[in-house]
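W.,

You were right to be curious about this one. When I first looked at the sequence I had no strong expectations either way, so I just let the prediction run and decided to look at it fresh. Below is the sequence, 264 residues in total, followed by the output.
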Amino acid sequence: MKTINKITKYILLAVVGVSAFSCKKDFNEVNTDPIGKSSVTASQLLAPALVDVLYANMVRNRNFNNELMQVTVDISDSEGKVFRYDVRRTWADYTWNAWYPELTNLRDIYTIASKPESLNASYKGISLITQAWVFQLLTDVYGDVPYTQANQGKDGVYEPIFDKQKDIYLDLFNKLEEANKLLTENKAIVASSDPVYQGDISKWRRLGNSLYLRLLLRISGKAEVSAQVIAKIKEIADTNKSTYPIMENNTHTAKILWNGTNSS
């Protein structure tokens, strides 16, 4: 019996030894994903981020706004139904949890487009416009929200501060000013990466400045900034229109058609 046990031990040791050596052979090659990518381009991030934000907005509109106004009514009569004005906390969580992850992607577009090997002023400008749009949604819905430290979890910022809504709005103006300047360079982007304007940078510039006007109008009644804001509105809409082109007709509309071909 002892002999059998010894033989068994030797066999196990031999197997372990062979396994240890075999793990070192071609280890890196064997454990490299032949399909996955370790990096992405700005063009690969733009469309998915935009579609995901719009999808969340559409779901929210259908399941909450329409139900609240009883445009549509759920056939179920159970608890927690919005059309019965039984609004639960999860409705507030939904857009928060949908918008912030996409802001990471939109910010990454700016970061990638700022690198020397992938420098592109248009992607940077589009990133700033889309960030301003999503942050405007967030602060309009929730008030004070994480902004200056938001989306920095990979840098170790796990509990970002909540910025004042006023400060957020004022910085969104800075983003849109920078975007307008960047887009004047009219750098080409991958048309297929842009489900909104198919690479037409002039239309993105109009969208950014029109969004700028919207944000200015939203706070134009605030006494502490009204003079500054009204002056800027006049500059964009009247005295300096050539520097700030805005939407003027339906061809400038920002839209993604859900028609099965993802073309606008």
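Here's what jumped out at me. The radius of gyration is 26 Å. And, maybe more interesting for your project: The chain has a mean pLDDT of 86.

Coffee later to discuss?

I.
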